[in-house]
Amino acid sequence: MKSLKTTSLFLLLSVSLTVFGQTENESKESHHIEVIGKAEKSIVPDEIFISIVIREREEGKEKISVDQQEAALKEELVGIGVPLKDLSLTDVNANYIRVRRTKKELTVKNEYVLKVGDASTVSQVFEKLDELKIVEAHISRVSHSKLPELQKEVRILAIKAAKDKAEYLLSAIDEKVGKPIYVYEQSPSYNDDELGFNVRGARSVSNVVFLDGVKVRGGSPMSESIGFQKIKLQSSIYVKFEII
């Protein structure tokens, strides 16, 4: 009987503590403020990727091979100061070429990606492509060599903006911000029209991408001499703060 009474008392205390804990948590949850902090940073792209397709072609009775055109292109790139290490076959195409060469078949088409650092170089590359009669080329995307670090900076600015907003809102009613209860980085939405590139007849392509949760918005060059519009990084962070 004594054992039964002890067990009942223990259960009663456990239930009481649980209810008390829930009540305390609910009390904290009921005194909070929810805010969204936003931040953005505009940066000039320093990585511009050009997609190039070289096909075997004929001029009169002469057949100009892909290898001949590739060699000529490399020579021109060196002449304008573009490192050849920045010219590479696309991954799929590279595997395909290796198989064909193993079988000693002639290559009739190669696809490349060329990385350059600024709009001036882009203009020079397209001029050389025109001279070499390589007509299939377009800017596929733009980026920045320090993009991860810049994304981090934007996120930090966004969460600081959230805290600042909570502080000045609560100060208006003589309250103070406590510890964060919940933090969530919102997925950015994008409703603007797609922007395109327009460099020496390059095909227009979409250049809006989401990189690790941060919206990256590129722009088309205003002119070859001016350069590319800046990439806009944006971050939006929701935070629930305790009110103390």
Q: Which labels suit this protein?
A:
244 residues, alpha+beta, Translation Initiation Factor IF3, Alpha-Beta Plaits, 2 domains, 5-stranded antiparallel sheet, 11 strands
Q: Would you mind describing this structure in some detail?
A:
The protein is an alpha+beta fold and 244 residues long. It has 2 domains: 32-44 and 146-243, 2-Layer Sandwich (Translation Initiation Factor IF3); 47-143, Alpha-Beta Plaits (2-Layer Sandwich), CATH 3.30.70. The chain is built from 5 helices and 11 strands; from the N terminus they run αββββαβαβαβαββββ. The strands form 3 sheets. Strands 1, 8, 9, 10 and 11 form a 5-stranded antiparallel beta sheet that branches. Strands 5-6-2-7 form a 4-stranded antiparallel beta sheet. The protein has a two-stranded antiparallel sheet with strand order 3-4. A hairpin with a 2-residue loop joins strand 3 and strand 4. The longest helix has 29 residues, at 2-30. The chain is rod-shaped.
Fraction in helix = 25-40%
Which regions contain 5 or more consecutive residues with pLDDT less than 50? 9-20, 189-226
Q: Approximately how much beta-strand content do the residues carry?
A: 25-35%
| CATH architecture descriptor name of the largest domain | 2-Layer Sandwich
Inertia-based shape:
rod-shaped
Radius of gyration: 30 Å
Count of individual domains: 2
| Total count of helical runs of at least 4 residues | 5
- What is the chain-wise order of helices and strands? HEEEEHEHEHEHEEEE
> What's the CATH topology name of the largest domain?
Translation Initiation Factor IF3
Characterize the largest beta sheet: strand count, sense, and whether it forms a barrel. Answer: 5 strands, antiparallel
CATH class designation of the largest domain: Alpha Beta
Number of strands: 11
Mean pLDDT level: 77
